Amino acid sequence: CECPLHRDIKGDRHCRETRKFTCQVKFRDQVQDCAQYYEEFGYDERRDGDPPCSIMDDTEQLVVTTAVECKFDDATSPSSSARGSDPEAAVDTTVDGFKYAYYVADKSFALGTPFSLDIEMTAFNFRRLSQSKKLVQGTVEGRGLMGQSVTYSVEPGAVGADFFSGGRLYIEVLISHDQWASPTAAPTIAKAAPIFIDVRGLRSSSSGVFTWLLE
To answer: Which residue has the higher pLDDT, 91 or 44?
Structure first.
């Protein structure tokens, strides 16, 4: 017998088990385009840790375009991020006689039961690791679970000086799933997507060790 796309056809429980899938945050823009700064700041990836990527004034707006992408763990089709555009996807649709809450045309993901994810963009204070500040908080659902682009805008300078360690601000974009809210859909959540922001005007030290210093 045929199974809906989200049902596992392997093993004794034919069509009864939901195929395992993973959801993760990916960047659509070049917020982490680090290579262009290597020569300008004398960055050496063998000794200097995480590279300078987003260099800006503390009054500038950081614009980040992200996409949450859920995909079957055994899918072989390329991700929407690799294609560089939002995937062709549908919600509440019927394909080959099966009803789906979510369906991606390349068959990399489908699900019969709706669910949602929480998303947040959080800044961390490296001087006091227990201290963090949420910059963006929201819910991802519908096409947003299938690679639809969403743009967020935050002002790093509004976070507070304590969060800039050596002139650098560290932010994570992460998603989470409330198992109690939608117990029939249990995605694996990939690790958070990091963003490093460096205040413009910082330079490496005269000794050649890459140490950020405020002007």
So the answer is: 91
